[in-house]
């Protein structure tokens, strides 16, 4: 039974929630506005989600902000998103730090401007010692990239003679992935109505509960977040066992 499986008969809150924050563009279009105003409106929902995660005492919240495929968007939208990212990092980091939140950016950061990379490094350094919520922002992130870079790191260790191929196990590959040191993702929420993963966390979602809501990201607040958590609490996680086995474990208090 994985370490995450705690079946003590009590409702289990998630420890790690990941969110695909989708629907900003449609939110703006519905109002006859430019897509970028939807992204700006989405920042408020990010603040609310972080506050709620903090109140729930989650270990980690991981937000998908920009995928490795989002570079395909029109140049003006990409550059507006980058500017917004820089502005928000500048304006929010101190507040995160005051609240003991550790900020991490996951993804291939080499593609960002030097300026943005410096801002990211500074923000991570400032908050590195914080022990409250870990907030991961996935930027230029792709699940396939994550697995590929982990495989490359192991291949380099083999080439350097530090490892033989037969030593490679799931935990060893897992240790090379982004989020390796955090609790497994328990709950994935996607807003905006699509029911797909869009190359977000692939390996890490193996046993996550999936929750899709039509609510567009700028409209996603504490109420929507708590509905998602309530749905999670109501589900029976089996990790490959039968429902009867899980109920027996709960009855025996063996979890
Ligand atoms: C999600 O909202 C934000 C990013 C991908 C940056 P979208 O911009 O994808 O919004 P829709 O899906 O077009 O409504
Ligand atoms: C996924 O949303 C990426 C983020 C929310 C950052 P997209 O809107 O880019 O995904 P697709 O293109 O609909 O799959
Ligand atoms: Mg979208």
TrEMBL record:
Please indicate if the UniProt record lists Cell wall biogenesis/degradation as a keyword: yes
Q: Which residues cross the membrane?
A: none
What does the cofactor field's note say?
Answer: Binds 2 magnesium ions per subunit.
Q: Where along this sequence does the record place binding of Mg(2+)? A: 22, 209
Q: Would the keyword Cytoplasm turn up in this protein's UniProt record?
A: no
Q: Name the keywords, alphabetized.
A: Cell shape, Cell wall biogenesis/degradation, Magnesium, Metal-binding, Peptidoglycan synthesis, Transferase
Q: EC number(s) on record?
A: 2.5.1.31
Q: For substrate, which residues are the binding ones? A: 23-27, 35, 39, 67-69, 71, 73, 190, 196-198
CDD domains for the chain = Cis_IPPS
Query: What is its cofactor?
Result: Mg(2+)
Would you say which domain of life the source belongs to?
Bacteria
Task: Give an example GO molecular function.
Answer: magnesium ion binding
- What is the catalytic activity of this protein? 8 isopentenyl diphosphate + (2E,6E)-farnesyl diphosphate = di-trans,octa-cis-undecaprenyl diphosphate + 8 diphosphate
GO terms for biological process, alphabetical? cell wall organization; peptidoglycan biosynthetic process; polyprenol biosynthetic process; regulation of cell shape
Positions annotated as active site in the UniProt record:
22, 70
This protein's GO cellular component annotations are: cytosol
Residues folding into a coiled coil are none
**Function, in words:** Catalyzes the sequential condensation of isopentenyl diphosphate (IPP) with (2E,6E)-farnesyl diphosphate (E,E-FPP) to yield (2Z,6Z,10Z,14Z,18Z,22Z,26Z,30Z,34E,38E)-undecaprenyl diphosphate (di-trans,octa-cis-UPP). UPP is the precursor of glycosyl carrier lipid in the biosynthesis of bacterial cell wall polysaccharide components such as peptidoglycan and lipopolysaccharide.
Its subunit composition reads: Homodimer.
The family annotation for this protein states: Belongs to the UPP synthase family.
Which HAMAP family is this protein grouped with? ISPT (MF_01139)
Q: What is this protein called?
A: Ditrans,polycis-undecaprenyl-diphosphate synthase ((2E,6E)-farnesyl-diphosphate specific)
């Amino acid at each position: 039974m994985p370490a995450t499986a705690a079946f003590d008969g009590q409702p289990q809150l998630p420890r790690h929630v990941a969110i695909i924050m989708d629907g900003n563009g449609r939110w703006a279009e519905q109002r006859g506005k430019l897509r970028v105003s939807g992204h700006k409106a989405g920042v408020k929902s990010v603040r609310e989600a972080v506050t709620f995660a903090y109140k729930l005492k989650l270990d980690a919240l991981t937000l998908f902000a920009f995928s490795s495929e989002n570079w395909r968007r029109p140049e003006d939208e990409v550059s507006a998103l980058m500017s917004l990212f820089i502005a928000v990092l500048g304006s929010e980091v101190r507040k995160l730090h005051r609240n003991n939140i550790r900020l991490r950016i996951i993804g291939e950061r080499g593609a960002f401007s030097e300026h943005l990379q410096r801002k990211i490094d500074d923000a991570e350094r400032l908050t590195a010692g914080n022990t409250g919520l870990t907030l991961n922002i996935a930027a230029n992130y792709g699940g396939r990239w994550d697995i590929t870079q982990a495989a490359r790191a192991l291949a380099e260790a083999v080439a350097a003679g530090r490892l033989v191929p037969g030593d490679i196990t799931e935990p060893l590959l897992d240790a090379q992935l982004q989020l390796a040191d955090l609790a497994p993702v328990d709950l994935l929420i996607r807003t905006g109505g699509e029911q797909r993963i869009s190359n977000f966390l692939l390996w890490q979602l193996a046993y996550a509960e999936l929750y899709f809501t039509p609510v567009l990201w700028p409209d996603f607040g504490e109420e929507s977040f708590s509905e998602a958590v309530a749905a999670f609490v109501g589900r029976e996680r089996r990790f490959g066992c039968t429902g009867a086995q899980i109920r027996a474990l709960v009855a025996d208090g063996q979890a």
